[in-house]
Amino acid sequence: MTDYDVDLFVIGAGSGGVRAARMAAGLGVKVAIAENRHFGGTCVNVGCVPKKLFVYASHFRDDFAAAQGFGWSIADPQFNWSQLLAQKNREIDRLQGVYQDLLNNSGVLVIKGPARLVDAHTVAVGEQVYRCERILIATGGRPWVPAIPGREWVATSNEMFALDKLPERLLIVGGGYIAVEFAGIMHGLGVKTTLCYRGNQLLRGFDDDIRAFIAQEMRKKGIDIRLNTQISGIEKTDQGLSARTGHEQSITADLILYATGRKPNTADLGLESLGVALDVNGAIKVNQHYQTNIPSIYALGDVTNRFNLTPVATAEAMALVNRLYTDQATPVDYDNIPTAVFSRPNIGTVGLTEAEAGKRHPEIDIYKSVFTPMKHTLSGLGEKSLMKMVVDRGSGKVLGVHMVGADAGEIIQGMAIAIRAGATKATFDSTIGIHPTAAEEFVTMRKPVDG
Q: What is the CATH number for 304?
Protein backbone atom coordinates (compact mmCIF):
# COMPACT_ATOMS: atom_id res chain seq x y z
CA MET A 1 0.00 0.00 0.00
CA THR A 2 1.36 3.41 -1.05
CA ASP A 3 2.20 5.81 1.78
CA TYR A 4 0.79 9.29 1.11
CA ASP A 5 1.30 12.53 3.03
CA VAL A 6 -2.34 13.51 2.40
CA ASP A 7 -5.38 11.80 0.97
CA LEU A 8 -6.63 14.88 -0.89
CA PHE A 9 -4.57 17.88 -1.97
CA VAL A 10 -6.67 20.87 -3.11
CA ILE A 11 -5.09 23.61 -5.20
CA GLY A 12 -7.06 26.85 -4.85
CA ALA A 13 -8.91 28.18 -1.80
CA GLY A 14 -11.89 29.70 -3.56
CA SER A 15 -15.49 28.69 -2.99
CA GLY A 16 -15.21 25.24 -4.61
CA GLY A 17 -11.83 24.35 -3.18
CA VAL A 18 -12.68 25.41 0.36
CA ARG A 19 -16.00 23.55 0.31
CA ALA A 20 -14.32 20.35 -0.92
CA ALA A 21 -11.50 20.60 1.62
CA ARG A 22 -13.78 21.25 4.58
CA MET A 23 -16.27 18.54 3.65
CA ALA A 24 -13.59 15.93 3.10
CA ALA A 25 -11.79 16.80 6.33
CA GLY A 26 -15.08 16.53 8.19
CA LEU A 27 -15.33 12.95 6.95
CA GLY A 28 -11.94 12.07 8.38
CA VAL A 29 -9.99 12.52 5.16
CA LYS A 30 -6.47 13.94 5.52
CA VAL A 31 -6.63 17.15 3.46
CA ALA A 32 -4.20 19.90 2.45
CA ILE A 33 -5.07 23.05 0.54
CA ALA A 34 -2.70 25.50 -1.16
CA GLU A 35 -3.55 29.09 -2.01
CA ASN A 36 -1.22 31.48 -3.79
CA ARG A 37 -3.22 34.67 -3.28
CA HIS A 38 -6.32 35.35 -1.19
CA PHE A 39 -8.64 33.00 0.66
CA GLY A 40 -12.12 33.07 -0.81
CA GLY A 41 -11.02 33.25 -4.43
CA THR A 42 -12.54 35.55 -7.04
CA CYS A 43 -16.00 35.74 -5.47
CA VAL A 44 -14.87 37.10 -2.12
CA ASN A 45 -11.99 39.27 -3.30
CA VAL A 46 -12.61 40.60 -6.82
CA GLY A 47 -16.04 39.27 -7.74
CA CYS A 48 -19.48 38.70 -6.27
CA VAL A 49 -18.98 40.26 -2.83
CA PRO A 50 -17.24 43.57 -3.58
CA LYS A 51 -19.32 43.91 -6.76
CA LYS A 52 -22.58 43.65 -4.82
CA LEU A 53 -21.31 46.16 -2.23
CA PHE A 54 -20.55 48.59 -5.05
CA VAL A 55 -23.99 47.96 -6.55
CA TYR A 56 -25.58 48.94 -3.23
CA ALA A 57 -23.49 52.12 -3.17
CA SER A 58 -24.51 53.03 -6.71
CA HIS A 59 -28.23 52.89 -5.89
CA PHE A 60 -28.16 55.86 -3.53
CA ARG A 61 -27.94 58.35 -6.37
CA ASP A 62 -31.36 57.25 -7.63
CA ASP A 63 -32.68 56.91 -4.09
CA PHE A 64 -31.79 60.52 -3.29
CA ALA A 65 -33.44 61.64 -6.54
CA ALA A 66 -36.56 59.58 -5.78
CA ALA A 67 -36.84 60.87 -2.22
CA GLN A 68 -38.37 64.19 -3.27
CA GLY A 69 -41.35 62.40 -4.76
CA PHE A 70 -42.07 60.98 -1.30
CA GLY A 71 -41.81 64.25 0.56
CA TRP A 72 -38.13 64.15 1.57
CA SER A 73 -35.78 67.06 1.06
CA ILE A 74 -32.14 66.00 0.78
CA ALA A 75 -29.65 68.78 0.28
CA ASP A 76 -26.54 68.15 -1.80
CA PRO A 77 -25.53 64.56 -0.90
CA GLN A 78 -21.80 63.89 -1.39
CA PHE A 79 -20.06 60.63 -2.29
CA ASN A 80 -16.61 59.64 -0.98
CA TRP A 81 -14.95 56.89 -3.04
CA SER A 82 -12.08 56.41 -0.57
CA GLN A 83 -14.52 55.80 2.26
CA LEU A 84 -16.42 53.18 0.25
CA LEU A 85 -13.14 51.51 -0.68
CA ALA A 86 -12.01 51.38 2.95
CA GLN A 87 -15.34 49.91 4.06
CA LYS A 88 -15.17 47.32 1.28
CA ASN A 89 -11.62 46.38 2.21
CA ARG A 90 -12.57 45.86 5.85
CA GLU A 91 -15.36 43.50 4.85
CA ILE A 92 -13.12 41.54 2.46
CA ASP A 93 -10.45 41.23 5.17
CA ARG A 94 -13.08 39.87 7.52
CA LEU A 95 -14.29 37.31 5.01
CA GLN A 96 -10.75 36.19 4.19
CA GLY A 97 -10.26 35.54 7.89
CA VAL A 98 -13.53 33.60 8.05
CA TYR A 99 -12.44 31.34 5.19
CA GLN A 100 -9.05 30.68 6.77
CA ASP A 101 -10.62 29.98 10.16
CA LEU A 102 -13.10 27.55 8.59
CA LEU A 103 -10.24 25.61 7.05
CA ASN A 104 -8.09 25.63 10.18
CA ASN A 105 -10.99 24.61 12.41
CA SER A 106 -11.82 21.75 10.04
CA GLY A 107 -8.35 20.26 10.46
CA VAL A 108 -7.23 21.08 6.92
CA LEU A 109 -3.50 21.70 6.43
CA VAL A 110 -3.38 25.23 4.98
CA ILE A 111 -0.38 26.06 2.78
CA LYS A 112 0.39 29.52 1.39
CA GLY A 113 2.20 29.62 -1.94
CA PRO A 114 2.02 28.57 -5.60
CA ALA A 115 1.40 24.85 -6.07
CA ARG A 116 2.68 22.82 -9.03
CA LEU A 117 2.01 19.25 -10.03
CA VAL A 118 5.15 17.13 -10.22
CA ASP A 119 3.43 13.90 -11.20
CA ALA A 120 0.02 12.28 -10.86
CA HIS A 121 0.44 11.94 -7.09
CA THR A 122 2.86 14.71 -6.16
CA VAL A 123 2.42 18.43 -5.56
CA ALA A 124 5.25 20.88 -4.83
CA VAL A 125 4.75 24.20 -3.05
CA GLY A 126 8.09 25.95 -3.09
CA GLU A 127 10.67 23.48 -1.82
CA GLN A 128 8.09 21.39 0.02
CA VAL A 129 6.81 18.26 -1.73
CA TYR A 130 3.62 16.41 -0.84
CA ARG A 131 2.62 12.90 -1.88
CA CYS A 132 -1.14 12.76 -2.46
CA GLU A 133 -3.61 10.01 -3.21
CA ARG A 134 -5.81 12.48 -5.09
CA ILE A 135 -5.34 16.04 -6.34
CA LEU A 136 -8.18 18.51 -6.89
CA ILE A 137 -7.61 21.63 -9.00
CA ALA A 138 -9.97 24.50 -8.18
CA THR A 139 -7.97 27.51 -9.28
CA GLY A 140 -10.82 29.46 -10.91
CA GLY A 141 -10.36 31.98 -13.70
CA ARG A 142 -9.00 35.42 -14.48
CA PRO A 143 -10.00 38.36 -16.72
CA TRP A 144 -8.91 38.13 -20.35
CA VAL A 145 -7.99 41.05 -22.60
CA PRO A 146 -7.55 40.54 -26.35
CA ALA A 147 -4.20 41.31 -27.97
CA ILE A 148 -4.93 44.77 -29.35
CA PRO A 149 -2.50 47.67 -29.69
CA GLY A 150 -2.46 49.61 -26.42
CA ARG A 151 -3.79 46.81 -24.24
CA GLU A 152 -1.23 47.80 -21.60
CA TRP A 153 -3.33 50.89 -20.83
CA VAL A 154 -6.55 49.07 -19.98
CA ALA A 155 -7.94 47.88 -16.65
CA THR A 156 -9.81 44.67 -15.89
CA SER A 157 -12.48 43.98 -13.30
CA ASN A 158 -9.73 43.07 -10.81
CA GLU A 159 -8.36 46.62 -10.81
CA MET A 160 -11.81 48.22 -10.60
CA PHE A 161 -12.09 47.15 -6.98
CA ALA A 162 -8.94 49.06 -5.97
CA LEU A 163 -8.90 52.30 -7.97
CA ASP A 164 -7.10 55.18 -6.27
CA LYS A 165 -9.82 57.52 -7.47
CA LEU A 166 -12.87 57.42 -9.70
CA PRO A 167 -12.41 58.52 -13.30
CA GLU A 168 -14.55 61.30 -14.69
CA ARG A 169 -15.01 59.39 -17.96
CA LEU A 170 -15.09 55.60 -18.25
CA LEU A 171 -15.20 53.45 -21.37
CA ILE A 172 -16.26 49.84 -20.85
CA VAL A 173 -15.54 47.34 -23.62
CA GLY A 174 -17.70 44.21 -23.55
CA GLY A 175 -21.31 43.16 -23.43
CA GLY A 176 -21.50 40.44 -20.78
CA TYR A 177 -22.68 40.60 -17.20
CA ILE A 178 -19.44 42.13 -15.86
CA ALA A 179 -19.59 44.96 -18.40
CA VAL A 180 -23.26 45.61 -17.76
CA GLU A 181 -22.88 45.53 -13.98
CA PHE A 182 -19.91 47.91 -13.92
CA ALA A 183 -21.73 50.29 -16.27
CA GLY A 184 -24.53 50.56 -13.71
CA ILE A 185 -22.13 50.84 -10.78
CA MET A 186 -19.91 53.54 -12.25
CA HIS A 187 -22.73 55.59 -13.70
CA GLY A 188 -24.53 55.42 -10.36
CA LEU A 189 -21.41 56.76 -8.63
CA GLY A 190 -21.35 59.77 -10.95
CA VAL A 191 -18.93 58.61 -13.65
CA LYS A 192 -19.73 59.48 -17.27
CA THR A 193 -19.99 55.96 -18.67
CA THR A 194 -19.82 54.65 -22.23
CA LEU A 195 -20.24 50.95 -23.02
CA CYS A 196 -19.07 49.54 -26.36
CA TYR A 197 -19.91 46.07 -27.56
CA ARG A 198 -19.08 44.44 -30.87
CA GLY A 199 -22.40 42.55 -31.01
CA ASN A 200 -25.85 43.84 -31.90
CA GLN A 201 -27.28 43.28 -28.40
CA LEU A 202 -25.93 42.99 -24.84
CA LEU A 203 -25.82 39.82 -22.73
CA ARG A 204 -25.45 37.03 -25.26
CA GLY A 205 -27.28 33.90 -24.14
CA PHE A 206 -30.04 35.71 -22.26
CA ASP A 207 -33.62 35.99 -23.50
CA ASP A 208 -33.86 38.50 -26.35
CA ASP A 209 -36.60 40.55 -24.68
CA ILE A 210 -34.46 40.84 -21.56
CA ARG A 211 -31.47 41.95 -23.63
CA ALA A 212 -33.38 44.68 -25.43
CA PHE A 213 -35.18 45.86 -22.29
CA ILE A 214 -32.08 46.23 -20.11
CA ALA A 215 -30.33 48.28 -22.81
CA GLN A 216 -33.37 50.53 -22.99
CA GLU A 217 -33.45 51.06 -19.23
CA MET A 218 -29.70 51.67 -19.01
CA ARG A 219 -29.90 54.28 -21.75
CA LYS A 220 -32.77 55.99 -19.95
CA LYS A 221 -30.47 56.41 -16.94
CA GLY A 222 -27.87 58.12 -19.12
CA ILE A 223 -25.43 55.32 -19.96
CA ASP A 224 -24.09 55.67 -23.51
CA ILE A 225 -24.39 52.22 -25.12
CA ARG A 226 -22.77 51.74 -28.52
CA LEU A 227 -23.51 48.40 -30.14
CA ASN A 228 -21.82 46.92 -33.22
CA THR A 229 -18.69 48.80 -32.17
CA GLN A 230 -15.27 47.19 -32.28
CA ILE A 231 -12.19 48.73 -30.66
CA SER A 232 -9.14 48.45 -32.92
CA GLY A 233 -6.54 50.06 -30.66
CA ILE A 234 -5.87 52.36 -27.72
CA GLU A 235 -3.49 55.28 -27.40
CA LYS A 236 -2.52 57.52 -24.50
CA THR A 237 -2.89 61.22 -25.31
CA ASP A 238 -2.86 64.53 -23.47
CA GLN A 239 -6.66 64.31 -23.25
CA GLY A 240 -6.67 60.80 -21.77
CA LEU A 241 -6.95 57.35 -23.31
CA SER A 242 -8.21 57.30 -26.87
CA ALA A 243 -9.92 54.14 -28.18
CA ARG A 244 -10.16 53.82 -31.95
CA THR A 245 -13.35 52.22 -33.24
CA GLY A 246 -14.07 50.44 -36.49
CA HIS A 247 -16.05 53.47 -37.65
CA GLU A 248 -12.84 55.52 -37.95
CA GLN A 249 -13.84 57.41 -34.85
CA SER A 250 -12.41 57.51 -31.35
CA ILE A 251 -13.72 57.58 -27.80
CA THR A 252 -11.71 59.41 -25.17
CA ALA A 253 -11.84 58.35 -21.54
CA ASP A 254 -9.81 58.61 -18.35
CA LEU A 255 -10.07 54.86 -17.78
CA ILE A 256 -10.88 51.95 -20.10
CA LEU A 257 -12.25 48.76 -18.59
CA TYR A 258 -12.05 45.60 -20.67
CA ALA A 259 -14.77 43.14 -19.64
CA THR A 260 -14.29 40.77 -22.56
CA GLY A 261 -14.42 37.41 -20.84
CA ARG A 262 -12.40 35.23 -18.50
CA LYS A 263 -9.87 32.45 -18.94
CA PRO A 264 -9.22 29.45 -16.67
CA ASN A 265 -6.23 29.65 -14.31
CA THR A 266 -4.28 26.68 -15.65
CA ALA A 267 -0.91 28.26 -16.42
CA ASP A 268 2.17 27.29 -14.40
CA LEU A 269 0.49 24.31 -12.72
CA GLY A 270 2.51 21.71 -14.58
CA LEU A 271 -0.56 20.32 -16.34
CA GLU A 272 0.91 20.15 -19.84
CA SER A 273 3.98 18.21 -18.77
CA LEU A 274 1.74 15.65 -17.04
CA GLY A 275 -0.51 15.36 -20.08
CA VAL A 276 -3.67 16.66 -18.37
CA ALA A 277 -6.14 17.31 -21.19
CA LEU A 278 -7.09 20.96 -21.76
CA ASP A 279 -9.50 22.51 -24.25
CA VAL A 280 -8.60 25.28 -26.70
CA ASN A 281 -9.24 27.94 -24.04
CA GLY A 282 -6.97 26.24 -21.50
CA ALA A 283 -9.83 24.83 -19.42
CA ILE A 284 -9.34 21.43 -17.80
CA LYS A 285 -11.41 18.70 -19.41
CA VAL A 286 -13.29 16.50 -16.95
CA ASN A 287 -15.86 13.73 -17.10
CA GLN A 288 -19.21 13.69 -15.27
CA HIS A 289 -17.37 12.88 -12.05
CA TYR A 290 -14.94 15.86 -12.33
CA GLN A 291 -12.12 13.47 -13.15
CA THR A 292 -9.47 14.38 -15.71
CA ASN A 293 -7.85 11.96 -18.13
CA ILE A 294 -5.38 11.20 -15.31
CA PRO A 295 -7.44 9.20 -12.77
CA SER A 296 -5.92 10.72 -9.61
CA ILE A 297 -6.42 14.34 -10.74
CA TYR A 298 -9.78 16.14 -10.52
CA ALA A 299 -10.98 19.66 -11.32
CA LEU A 300 -14.13 21.68 -10.72
CA GLY A 301 -15.51 25.20 -10.84
CA ASP A 302 -14.40 27.96 -13.20
CA VAL A 303 -11.14 26.23 -14.11
CA THR A 304 -13.28 23.78 -16.13
CA ASN A 305 -15.07 26.73 -17.81
CA ARG A 306 -18.51 25.13 -17.94
CA PHE A 307 -20.93 26.83 -15.51
CA ASN A 308 -18.95 29.67 -14.01
CA LEU A 309 -21.05 30.47 -10.96
CA THR A 310 -19.99 30.32 -7.31
CA PRO A 311 -22.95 28.17 -6.15
CA VAL A 312 -22.25 25.71 -8.97
CA ALA A 313 -18.63 25.33 -7.82
CA THR A 314 -19.72 24.60 -4.26
CA ALA A 315 -22.36 22.13 -5.48
CA GLU A 316 -19.72 20.37 -7.60
CA ALA A 317 -17.43 20.19 -4.58
CA MET A 318 -20.12 18.53 -2.49
CA ALA A 319 -20.92 16.08 -5.28
CA LEU A 320 -17.26 15.13 -5.70
CA VAL A 321 -16.56 14.63 -1.99
CA ASN A 322 -19.71 12.59 -1.49
CA ARG A 323 -18.83 10.38 -4.43
CA LEU A 324 -15.24 9.82 -3.32
CA TYR A 325 -15.69 9.44 0.41
CA THR A 326 -19.31 8.46 1.15
CA ASP A 327 -21.93 6.12 -0.23
CA GLN A 328 -24.29 9.05 -0.82
CA ALA A 329 -24.45 10.26 -4.41
CA THR A 330 -25.43 13.91 -4.83
CA PRO A 331 -24.91 14.66 -8.53
CA VAL A 332 -25.33 18.24 -9.71
CA ASP A 333 -28.33 18.91 -11.94
CA TYR A 334 -27.23 21.56 -14.41
CA ASP A 335 -30.71 22.18 -15.80
CA ASN A 336 -32.62 25.26 -14.69
CA ILE A 337 -29.75 26.95 -12.85
CA PRO A 338 -30.97 30.40 -11.80
CA THR A 339 -28.77 33.42 -12.18
CA ALA A 340 -28.85 37.16 -11.67
CA VAL A 341 -27.14 40.15 -13.23
CA PHE A 342 -26.80 42.98 -10.73
CA SER A 343 -27.33 45.61 -13.35
CA ARG A 344 -29.46 48.68 -12.76
CA PRO A 345 -32.22 47.55 -12.83
CA ASN A 346 -31.44 43.94 -11.89
CA ILE A 347 -31.94 40.90 -14.09
CA GLY A 348 -33.05 37.51 -12.79
CA THR A 349 -33.53 34.46 -14.97
CA VAL A 350 -34.11 30.72 -14.74
CA GLY A 351 -34.91 28.06 -17.33
CA LEU A 352 -35.21 28.33 -21.09
CA THR A 353 -35.24 31.51 -23.12
CA GLU A 354 -37.99 31.95 -25.69
CA ALA A 355 -35.58 31.01 -28.50
CA GLU A 356 -34.34 27.89 -26.70
CA ALA A 357 -37.86 26.77 -25.87
CA GLY A 358 -38.98 27.27 -29.47
CA LYS A 359 -36.28 24.86 -30.64
CA ARG A 360 -37.12 22.14 -28.10
CA HIS A 361 -40.92 22.30 -27.97
CA PRO A 362 -43.39 22.24 -30.88
CA GLU A 363 -45.65 24.93 -29.38
CA ILE A 364 -45.00 27.45 -26.65
CA ASP A 365 -46.90 30.34 -25.11
CA ILE A 366 -45.28 33.57 -23.97
CA TYR A 367 -46.62 35.66 -21.11
CA LYS A 368 -45.17 39.10 -20.70
CA SER A 369 -45.80 42.18 -18.62
CA VAL A 370 -44.12 45.60 -18.77
CA PHE A 371 -45.15 48.03 -16.05
CA THR A 372 -44.10 50.90 -13.83
CA PRO A 373 -43.28 49.58 -10.35
CA MET A 374 -45.33 51.18 -7.59
CA LYS A 375 -42.29 53.00 -6.18
CA HIS A 376 -41.73 54.81 -9.45
CA THR A 377 -45.28 56.13 -9.71
CA LEU A 378 -44.05 58.81 -7.28
CA SER A 379 -40.25 58.74 -7.72
CA GLY A 380 -40.26 60.48 -11.09
CA LEU A 381 -37.43 58.26 -12.31
CA GLY A 382 -39.40 56.55 -15.07
CA GLU A 383 -37.90 53.10 -14.47
CA LYS A 384 -39.95 50.17 -15.72
CA SER A 385 -39.93 46.43 -15.06
CA LEU A 386 -40.32 43.47 -17.40
CA MET A 387 -41.57 40.01 -16.42
CA LYS A 388 -41.74 37.13 -18.85
CA MET A 389 -42.81 33.51 -18.64
CA VAL A 390 -42.21 30.78 -21.25
CA VAL A 391 -44.73 27.90 -21.17
CA ASP A 392 -45.05 24.61 -23.04
CA ARG A 393 -48.52 24.82 -24.58
CA GLY A 394 -49.18 21.09 -24.56
CA SER A 395 -48.37 20.31 -20.92
CA GLY A 396 -48.69 23.78 -19.43
CA LYS A 397 -45.27 23.32 -17.81
CA VAL A 398 -43.36 26.53 -17.13
CA LEU A 399 -40.08 26.34 -19.04
CA GLY A 400 -38.51 29.67 -18.17
CA VAL A 401 -39.05 32.77 -16.08
CA HIS A 402 -37.21 36.04 -16.75
CA MET A 403 -37.30 39.45 -15.10
CA VAL A 404 -35.77 42.91 -15.27
CA GLY A 405 -36.54 45.05 -12.25
CA ALA A 406 -35.71 45.80 -8.64
CA ASP A 407 -34.78 42.72 -6.58
CA ALA A 408 -35.06 40.45 -9.62
CA GLY A 409 -32.50 38.03 -8.17
CA GLU A 410 -34.44 37.72 -4.91
CA ILE A 411 -37.68 37.05 -6.78
CA ILE A 412 -36.26 34.59 -9.31
CA GLN A 413 -34.78 32.42 -6.55
CA GLY A 414 -38.33 31.45 -5.59
CA MET A 415 -39.30 31.00 -9.22
CA ALA A 416 -36.37 28.57 -9.62
CA ILE A 417 -37.77 26.34 -6.88
CA ALA A 418 -41.15 26.30 -8.61
CA ILE A 419 -39.64 25.36 -11.98
CA ARG A 420 -37.50 22.60 -10.47
CA ALA A 421 -40.64 21.26 -8.81
CA GLY A 422 -42.34 21.07 -12.23
CA ALA A 423 -44.83 23.90 -11.76
CA THR A 424 -47.32 24.50 -14.53
CA LYS A 425 -48.93 27.75 -15.59
CA ALA A 426 -52.05 26.55 -13.79
CA THR A 427 -49.98 26.28 -10.59
CA PHE A 428 -48.95 29.91 -10.95
CA ASP A 429 -52.50 30.98 -11.81
CA SER A 430 -53.93 29.30 -8.70
CA THR A 431 -51.35 30.91 -6.41
CA ILE A 432 -52.54 33.97 -4.52
CA GLY A 433 -50.25 36.94 -4.96
CA ILE A 434 -48.78 39.15 -2.28
CA HIS A 435 -50.22 42.62 -2.81
CA PRO A 436 -48.86 45.14 -3.56
CA THR A 437 -45.60 43.65 -4.84
CA ALA A 438 -43.91 43.37 -8.20
CA ALA A 439 -43.58 39.60 -7.73
CA GLU A 440 -47.35 39.10 -7.80
CA GLU A 441 -47.24 39.90 -11.51
CA PHE A 442 -45.99 36.35 -12.08
CA VAL A 443 -49.26 34.90 -10.74
CA THR A 444 -51.59 37.37 -12.45
CA MET A 445 -50.46 37.11 -16.11
CA ARG A 446 -53.49 35.46 -17.70
CA LYS A 447 -53.24 35.89 -21.48
CA PRO A 448 -50.30 34.95 -23.69
CA VAL A 449 -48.95 37.62 -26.01
CA ASP A 450 -49.93 37.46 -29.66
CA GLY A 451 -47.64 35.62 -32.03
A: 3.50.50.60
